[in-house]
Amino acid sequence: MGHDTAAEPVTGTYSDEPRLALLTRAEARETVELLQLLEQVDPGGRGPAAGQLAADLARRLPAP
Hints:
The protein contains 2 helices and no strands. It has helices spanning about 25-40, 45-60. It is mostly helical. The model has no long low-confidence stretch (mean pLDDT about 85).
């Protein structure tokens, strides 16, 4: 501890190549589907949180 990274400048070189999305649209849709399944199989545990995350993500996806 005692190492303050906020005071150090960020350095590095970055490519000018276009970056890929974190998830493709198809991967994001599959993630929403899997979260919805988790909501159904775990209603008393993390299911409700998974369902809320699925809903939040689904609203951010472009229409097919």
